[in-house]
Amino acid sequence: MPATLSGFTVEHFHQSKNVHIFEIQLGAGEKIVVKTFKDMVSVKFENADEKRFRGSQGMLGSYDKNGLMLARDGVTQLDDANAFAAEWQIKDDEPMLFQTRREPQYPRACRLPSAQVAETRRLGESTVSVEDAEIACASWPKEIASACVHDVLATGDLDLAAAGAF
User: Fold this and answer.
1) Domain match, 77 and 41 both
2) N or C: which end of the chain has fewer CB within 10 A?
């Protein structure tokens, strides 16, 4: 990864085997923190003036302040995550995001997880107990600890909690 992105300094931290943290320094103490844990990605804005990002849109779509999934028109609310993902698929007349093209490309739809994969991720079948997940997530901020517990139960991976607050 380059040391800069759009002129901003990027720092990379390899926290563990499965955790990478990229900090994009915006100046004046503001930064964008991109954290990866295996196939999961988290993006947080730290010390950022919310006015700077008001109306932002990105490859993950557009959310309003209440966490609603908004269509490209910025008004239509979508309740289905698959419909939301399809709405925000990169179109063929938009600039390339990656250096290499991989299928599927618009107008062919993105591949969704099979029902079989979805079945394997049911929380009721987790190999990790709720108690163990809560202990593993105890160091997370109180307001998001339940999300950590949910993710640990869904993945069966206690190391997820050690990855830090996503």
Assistant:
1) no
2) N
